[in-house]
Every structure is written in structure tokens, then in C-alpha cells.
């Protein structure tokens, strides 16, 4: 039977009077990749932000992470137990160096040996960041900033990472690099919950995908099932397969 790292059960969320999530239920398998697809305003970002503890407000439903209930917990608490997010745009610190940005991702860790190991790991994963270790974050290219944001998320040694539109604004070749890295991170044992406008790319790496429409999941299945679904192809992938 599948073992889940994350389970979202009938999640509702309101921004004031706006009922943004209307009963989202989804599971992320241990070591799985789940992609959320859908048009603008469907509720993808809200789902990630609520799970990650970044937004508070009226809600209903439950979120479970490795056997414990986590809905309503702060991002800080969630980070300590292995949930990382890279979801507020790139939001790197432009006036800090690459290394300093990475250290911000390890701020909850008191174990220097572990921090050193994590730094070495992210520099192996992103050699370009090692080359630019002392450079200010703000001077990096868009793709490098995205890499830095993901690398910073990995500095807390997460078991699951949530990524919101990692390909946004990046050139196609860089998008390929970013997706290769997401797969590499996943191979290393980190589960992934991904929101991505580039549906074709997202589906190519997803074990499971959910399509959101107006705060509800209207379709879900394996990445290849969803990629082969005519209505999805027409709505999100363009007519050409
Ligand atoms: P996008 O790709 O545009 O980010 P999305 O699928 O991530 O879309 P959300 O950003 O989660 O969608 O938005 C879901 C709904 O909640 C939309 O109707 C949106 O207008 C509304 N919404 C999002 N953020 C807020 C906010 N801070 N205050 C009020 N309403 C919001």
C-alpha cells in the first residue's frame, strides 16, 4: 500500500469572503512528485501557501504530514520537521552573497557539521552557485536566482519541498536545467509538490497530477494519464501533443 508523506483532506480556505479552496484532497507519496495544474486563480498557490503555513485565515479540513496533523502550524515549525517551500517568487536576498543566502536557509540548524554537509551537497547539485559563492544575490541571472531559491530550501534538509512556478520567466534551456535538478532532488529522497504553468514539463516528471478549477480538483491521475487526456491537452497543453 502506498505510504504518504503528505495528505490533504477536504481543505477549504477563505480570503475574507472569498472561498478560494473548496475541498481540496490530495496525497503525496513518500518520494513522490505531485504536480498541481490549472488556470490562473484556480487556487494552486493558495494550496501550497496554506500547506506551508504561510497564510492564515478561515479554513476547514485537515493536513497530515508523516502521521501528524499540521494544519495551522507556522512555516517556521514546519521547516523544523522537514517541510520546505520555495513559493514566494524567488525572494532571494539581493544584498547578500550566494553563500549568505544559503546560510539563511539553515538558520534553524545549530549543527555546524550538518550545515557544512548541506552546503557541500547544494554546491554539488548547483556548481554554478559555487562559482558565484561570493557574488551578491541580486547580480545573478533569473535562472541562477531560481537555483539559489531552491538550494536555500534544501539547506534545511527537507523531506518534502513545495515549489511554486520554478520555471516562471526562465529561458527554455534553463527550464530544462531546473527540471533536471528537481528530478535529482527527488532521486535523493525528497518528495515534491509542484505548481507549474508549464504543464507539459510538470507532467513529464509527475507521478501524480491534480487539475484545479475554481478551488476544486476536477481531475487527477498519473502524470501520463493526465498528459493523455484530451480535455487537458486542449486546455493546458495546446492542441499539438
Ligand atoms: P496563479 O497562477 O494566478 O497564481 P493560482 O491557481 O495559484 O493562480 P491563487 O493565487 O491560489 O490561484 O488564487 C485563488 C483565488 O484566491 C483567486 O480567486 C484569487 O483571486 C484569490 N486570492 C489569491 N490571493 C488572494 C488574496 N491575498 N486576497 C484575496 N483573494 C486572493
* Strands ordered across the widest β-sheet: 6-7-8-3-9-10
Largest sheet: 6 strands, mixed
| Secondary structure tally: strands | 10
Strand content: 25-35%
Listing every helix as H and every strand as E from the N terminus to the C terminus, the arrangement reads EEEHEEHEHHHHEHEHEEHH
By DSSP (H or I, 4+ residues per run), the number of helices equals 10
Uncertain spans, ≥5 residues at pLDDT below 50? Answer: none
User: Which structural class do the helices and strands define?
Assistant: alpha/beta
What distance separates the N and C termini?
Answer: 33 Å
Radius of gyration: 17 Å
Helix content: 25-40%
| Distinct ligands | adenosine-5'-triphosphate
Average pLDDT across residues? 91
- Silhouette: globular
Describe the structure.
The strands form 2 sheets. A 6-stranded mixed sheet has the order 6-7-8-3-9-10, with helices on both faces. The protein has 10 helices and 10 strands. It is of the alpha/beta class. It has helices spanning 44-51, 75-80, 98-105, 112-125, 127-131, 142-154, 172-187, 199-205, 223-227, 230-237; strands at 4-15, 18-29, 33-38, 59-65, 68-69, 83-86, 160-164, 191-195, 208-213, 216-222. It is 37% helix and 27% strand. The two termini are 33 Å apart. Helix 3 (98-105) runs parallel beside helix 6 (142-154). The chain is globular. Bound molecules: adenosine-5'-triphosphate. The site of adenosine-5'-triphosphate has 11 residues, from strand 2 and helix 1.
